[in-house]
Amino acid sequence: MDKKALEALLQDMSLEEKVMQLVQIPGSEYEADAEITGVTRGQADDKVKRLAGSTLGVWGSKRLKKIQQQYIKEHPHHIPLMFMLDVIHGHKTVFPCPLGQGATFDPEGVKKGAEVQAREASADGVHATFSPMADLCRDARWGRIMESTGEDKFLNSRMAVAMVEGYQGDDLKSPEHVAACVKHFAAYGAGEGGRDYNNTELSEHTLREHYLRAYCEAIKKNPAMVMTSFNTINGIPATGNTFLMKKILREEFGFKGVLISDWAAVGEMINHGFAEDQKDAALKAMMAGVDIDMTSGCYSGYLEELVKSGEISEKMLDEAVLRVLNMKNDLGLFDDPFRGIDPEVGAAVTEESRKHARKVVAESLVLLENKNKALPLNKSDSEKIAFIGPFANTKRLQSSWAFSGEDENTVTVFEAASEIYESGNIKFAEGCTMMDQDSVTARGICHVDNWQEKNEKLLSEAVEAAKWADTIVLCLGEDSTQSGEATSKASLKLPEVQLRLLSEMSKTGKRIVTLIFTGRPLELADVAKLSDAILVCWLPGTEGGNGVMDVLSGMTSPSGRLPVSFPYTVGQEPLHYDMYSTGRPKPASGPSEYTSRYLDCENGALYPFGYGLSYTNFEYSEASLSKEKMTSDETLTASVKVRNIGDMKGDVIVQLYLRDITGSRVRPVRELAGFERVSLNPGEEKEISFAIKEEMLRFWTAEEKWESEPGKFNVWVCDSSVDGTPLEFCLE
Ligand code: BGC
Predict the structure, then answer these.
(1) Strand pairing of 236-237 and 444-446?
(2) Listing from the earlier edge strand, what are the strands of the sheet with 650-660?
(3) How far apart are CA 277 and CA 267, in angstroms?
(4) CA nearest 536: which of 96, 158, 105, 114?
(5) Is residue 294 included in any domain, yes or no?
(6) Within this chain, do residues 160 and 201 fall inside the same structural domain, yes or no?
(7) CB neighbour class for 403 (10 Å; exposed up to 12, middle 13-18, buried from 19)
(8) Residues 67, 161 within the same domain
(9) Structural domains in the chain (count)
(10) Are the CB atoms for 113 and 424 separated by under 8 Å?
(11) Contact (Cβ atoms closer than 8 angstroms) between residue 705 and residue 719
(12) Which atom of ligand 1 is nearest to the CA of 57?
């Protein structure tokens, strides 16, 4: 439909019809088993159901086709319904959770994964995914850190951009693609105390320099939608925040697409104490520029009245409706309301999608410890390996946000091992239950009958298997219902029952390779003491077992790097490497009284951002700069040579960090400004260069401007956020 026809359609619509384009209702209004991702309040009446412009949480080619047919038939202007779904890290083929994808430092691989997800979702009738989540997360207590790509704004920007590009492709009309939604605008990851939905207090410079960056970069790629966040920012709920939505999002970032609220967030402004009632909430959200009200019922209940009374102008309403109609048009829904749907097959896991997922899993694994080269396995043909622990043979390897993927497609670690090793050389023992008795999860309390007896039995079986084995692959971690939405935690330890298993295993004196499955950083100091190797596996998804075994068996060398700091203790949270220096920084060595420090713990992470080991070794030459001074229109090049000095092929993630030494406002001690994944054969050397431009040196100055300031800068080209020797250059 061309622009004129679209506007003519708008003019022809009744006020009621227009308002309803801005209303999104839960998929449970159409299908009883739709995924409900928030609290619902009552049922939509017939009129709302007939006219609401979009719905969420339902998928499946046959049923969406049926719903669409019926809907179009009854709609006065036959405008198609839009179907949205949380395809967060996979629809049918489930990729590693976003935090795991961050660990790959491979935006190309992530983009290709998003393409797979878009194709599968579209074949199942879905038009838009609520992804990427570009929230910056510096607090491991927040369970939604699993849905982010980590603590760094630069890495997050690259990954959010890759996801938008992968989901949307070049043309939204293509039935291989779906619309992306950048969320949760803004600063949802900065909730006080790491508690979900909690308020955020952020200075404007921290907000702009750190928290807004990844959204901003992703928005430059024209995502069809942006979602508001649940939190307040400096006292004003994001969903009613005019400064955030009008000034920053629309005016400064130039966002032209559809702004949707998060689940019921419009109505939640009443609980915040920002809106008096539903009508007031609808008014405040509209005034802030929220186009679609996801499920709160405020727009369906009160928008018409607000327009009739003149509190909201018809012009404002029309602009919002036009944005929604435009999105439907961009998706090609007016030409083909059944776009993408494959009614025969729907979406399916294919060999090709599995192949890519397996590669991404292998790239995402982070080797934290490898004492005496405990890994790779395969010490000899007769090596006996016991796979022990609640994650050793479970198909629950995907996060709580991968609800459209089926467990039965998942390959477990032990299943994958069975493909590689003789059955006489491997054994499985569950070892213990996943959780401690009566653990609280997002979905309720987990109670296991006869928990004590069950665990005694599992433990004695595990001890038997361990005694038989040469090597124990101990598969521990956090259950997938303990990260994701509404899963904040005040402890970052593994469950007691798993720690007891580890301790009993260590008493056998066997080599212990510990795999950690998790959606958040955990406290691993005690685990490290008792393990010969530690490999972080995240929540790896459908090809989890195969990807993990590719690395354990030595077919591929591990190459993932931490996208987030792993603390010594939860008391260090929020923890991130790109902090500001104090006036009394703790010295690297020597006396540290009266400096900024903890008496009982290091300041930095146990395993820092950017860190990860390989089976091979890489040697970095001294880094060099192409010149020592640059003007604002010049480019400076920082280079280093990296050589594989081991005997195995491997990928290394070469990282560029910058520091503005003095500024009108203090600057972080280091900031990631570039990275490159480099493959090297044994003995091979490559020179890696990064271009440094003036725009990379900009920040929110004391003058409240986004600019660079002349002066001295440090550069590191190195292997992690705590590695390397700084070079210096000057911006004139
Ligand atoms: C979450 C969003 C999600 C939405 C729709 C909300 O509870 O915060 O991230 O996209 O539900 O399912």
Answers:
(1) unpaired
(2) 629-630, 727-731, 711-718, 650-660, 671-680
(3) 8
(4) 96
(5) yes
(6) yes
(7) middle
(8) yes
(9) 3
(10) no
(11) no
(12) 12
What H or E segment, with its residue span, contains residue 388?
Answer: strand 385-388
Ligand 1 binding pocket (C-beta < 6 A) is 37-38, 56, 86, 130, 183, 262-263, 485
User: Does the residue 507 lie in any domain?
Assistant: yes
User: How many CA atoms are closer than 13 Å to the CA of 33, on its beta-carbon side?
Assistant: 5
Mean pLDDT of 38-62: 89
Residues with Cβ within 8 Å of 200's Cβ and at least 6 positions away in sequence, in order, are 187, 188, 190, 191, 192, 231, 232, 233, 234
Q: 516 in helix, strand or coil?
A: strand
Contact 473, 385 (CB under 8 A): yes
Q: CA-to-CA distance for 232 and 191, rounded, in angstroms?
A: 9
What atom in ligand 1 is closest to the CA of residue 147?
9
Return the best residue to mutate from 58, 263, 295 for the ligand 1 pocket (most ligand atoms within 8 A of CB): 263
Are 303 and 365 part of one and the same domain?
A: no
In the predicted structure, residue 33 carries a pLDDT above the cut 90: no
Please indicate, yes or no, whether residues 384 and 282 belong to a single structural domain of this protein. no
pLDDT of residue 443: 84
Whether 315 and 374 share a structural domain: no
Q: Which CATH number fits the domain that encloses residue 512?
A: 3.40.50.1700
Tens digit of each residue's pLDDT (9 = 90 or more) over 463-507? 999 999 999 999 999 999 999 999 999 999 999 999 999 999 999
Which residues, listed in sequence order, are joined to residue 535 by a DSSP beta bridge?
Answer: 367, 515
With beta carbons less than 8 A apart as the criterion, state whether 405 and 91 touch: yes
Task: Give the three-class secondary structure for 443.
Answer: coil
Residue 218 sits in which domain range? 3-330
- Domain containing residue 99: CATH number: 3.20.20.300
Interval 68-77: pLDDT, tens: 999 999 999 9
Q: How many CB atoms lie within 10 A of CB 581?
A: 12
* C-beta of residue 510 within 8 angstroms of C-beta of residue 470: yes
DSSP result, 648-714: S-EEEEEEEEEEESS-SS--BS-EEEEEEEEEE-TT-EEEEEEEEEGGGG-EE-TTS-EE--SEEEE
Cα 352 to ligand 1 centroid, rounded to whole Å: 29
Residue nearest ligand 1's atom 12 by CA? 37
| Percent of the chain as helix, strand, coil, to the nearest 5 | 35, 20, 45
203 and 79 share a domain? yes
Cβ neighbours, 10 Å, residue 36? 14
On whether both 40 and 103 belong to a single domain, the answer is yes
Closest-CA residue, ligand 1 atom 6, reads 263
Strand-pairing partners, residue 656, are 674, 717
